[in-house]
């Protein structure tokens, strides 16, 4: 009986460790993303992902920033029409430029801020 109990605990520990994110790999993926956009439409609230529509800062053409990661969308309440979203490729900081304020949000995983 004692062996079964230990086996269950070890199995549970292995299962829990599999649920932890691979922060280094996720940071690498996030570094490759870019969004340079002036928001022109309200952000949808029906999705847990970022789906911002507006104008590209470099080209002034209509564009959309889509992201299936949940890093950016946690700041949805800070984003409004007219704000500028800036996430440069190679960086792990997401900026929201408002008329009188710049908000910056570093990428964080498991309590650690990545650069």
Automatic annotation (TrEMBL):
PROSITE patterns: PROKAR_LIPOPROTEIN. This is Lipoprotein. It comes from Apibacter adventoris. The lineage of its organism: Bacteria, Pseudomonadati, Bacteroidota, Flavobacteriia, Flavobacteriales.
């Amino acid at each position: 009986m004692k062996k079964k109990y230990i086996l269950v605990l070890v199995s549970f520990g292995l299962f829990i460790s599999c649920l932890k994110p691979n922060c280094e790999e996720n940071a690498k993926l996030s570094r490759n993303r870019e969004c340079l956009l002036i928001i022109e439409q309200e952000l949808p609230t029906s999705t847990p992902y970022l789906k911002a529509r507006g104008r590209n800062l470099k080209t002034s053409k209509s564009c959309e920033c889509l992201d299936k990661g949940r890093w950016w969308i946690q700041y949805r309440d800070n984003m409004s029409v007219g704000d500028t979203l800036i996430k440069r490729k190679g960086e792990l900081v997401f900026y929201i430029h408002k008329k009188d304020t710049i908000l910056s949000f570093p990428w964080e995983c498991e309590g650690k801020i990545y650069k």
